[in-house]
C-alpha cells in the first residue's frame, strides 16, 4: 500500500475540558506540507516543517472531539495519509492511577517486563499508552491489572502512561498516570 504518516497525541489519552494536547504527524519527507483533517473536513495546513508537524489543541471543548487524520502533500499531490486518530474530551471523575513496571525502568534486551496500572476503584479498566503510538498498547481489566511485554527490544523503549475508565451507564475517566520511561540496554 501507500506510505503512511504516523499520527499520535502528545501527551496521549483522553483530554479533560480546558486541557491541552498536541496532534503530531510524522512522515519521511522534507519539502512538503501536512494537512490536518477532522471528521473529513480540512482544518489546517503546515508548510515545509521537515518530517513532522504539530497541531496544538488548547482549552479543549466538546467541539474538539472527533476523528483526525493527516495528509502529506508535495506539489499538490497527496503522497501519504495517516490512520484516523480518535480524540475524546471528557471530565475526569476517577482518581489518578499509578503506573509501575517490573523488574524496573531499565532492562536488558530480551527481558520480560510487566506494566501494572493501579487505581482506587473496584470496577475500572485501564489503557496503557506509549507516547508516539496512534492508540493504546493494551488494556488492563479489573481481573488482570498488568500488561506483559516479553523479549523486549529497543523498539519497546519510550514514555509509558496509563489511563482508567468505568463503564457504568456512562464512561467515567481518570487523568493519565505519571509517565515512566522504559530503557532497553
Automatic annotation (TrEMBL):
Domain Ig-like: 3-86
SUPFAM superfamilies from the UniProt entry: Immunoglobulin
SMART domains recorded: IG (SM00409)
Pfam family, one: Ig_2
Gene3D superfamilies: Immunoglobulins
Coiled-coil ranges per UniProt: none
Keywords: Disulfide bond, Glycoprotein, Immunoglobulin domain, Repeat, Signal
GO biological process, any: immune response-regulating signaling pathway
Name of this protein: IGSF1 protein
Organism for this UniProt entry: Zapornia atra (Henderson crake)
